[in-house]
Amino acid sequence: MRHKKLFFCFFSLCFYVFAQESKDTSFITTQEYGKKLYENPRNIGCIKCHGKNGESEVIATYKNKNKSKIIKAPKINDMDFEAFKKALSKDKGIMPKYNLTEEEIKAIYLYISSKK
Ligand code: HEC
């Protein structure tokens, strides 16, 4: 009887270790990948200007001839993919140019669109 119990314990332990192991090595989802890229792409993070959820965010305020001016990043969590992609490949304005692959753009798009 004692043997059976021991065997069961051992078996449970093995299973537990195996489960933990496969948890650690599991692949990240596209959404998690998109989150990583959004927060830390190969340049300044999108999050710095567009905010945590891609809502419109104020980047800076300043005064010019006694008038308050605001620089804002637009809302980007409810766009269609083509417009999103196009905005990332143009090289003008305040936003820096990124050299992201189609896969990376898709991942960021998927992530940030889930935040609206
Ligand atoms: C330095 C601040 C800054 C950073 C960093 C930044 N953006 Fe922007 N983004 C802007 C501003 C400002 C605009 C408005 C157009 C312009 O002035 O360039 C914009 C425009 C956009 C647009 C077009 C929105 C529209 O309505 O047409 C998209 C999409 C976008 N950004 C996505 C991103 C993503 C994704 C990243 C990260 C890979 C990123 N941005 C990083 C400031 C920034």
Structural features, described:
This protein is α+β, with helices and mostly antiparallel strands. The model has no long low-confidence stretch (mean pLDDT 84). A hairpin with a 2-residue loop joins strand 1 and strand 2. The radius of gyration is 23 Å and the shape is elongated.
Short description:
With 116 residues, the chain is an alpha+beta fold. The protein has helices at residues 2-24, 30-39, 46-50, 81-89, 102-113; strands at residues 57-64, 67-73. It binds heme C.
Average residue-wise pLDDT: 84
Q: Percent of residues in beta strands?
A: 5-15%
Beta strand count: 2
Give every kind of bound small molecule, once each.
heme C
Which oligomeric state applies?
single chain
Q: Structurally, how many domains make up the residues?
A: 1
How many separate helices?
A: 5
Q: What is the approximate shape?
A: elongated
Q: Helix- and strand-based class?
A: alpha+beta
Order of helices and strands: HHHEEHH
Main sheet, how many strands, which sense, barrel? Answer: 2 strands, antiparallel
Distance between the termini: 58 Å
| Radius of gyration using CA atoms only | 23 Å
Residue share in helix:
40-55%
Instruction: Catalogue the unreliable spans.
Output: none
Arrangement of strands in the largest sheet: 1-2
Quick tags:
two-stranded antiparallel ribbon; 5 helices; 116 residues
Q: In terms of topology, how is this protein built?
A:
Layout: H1 2-24, H2 30-39, H3 46-50, E1 57-64, E2 67-73, H4 81-89, H5 102-113
Antiparallel strand pairs: 1-2
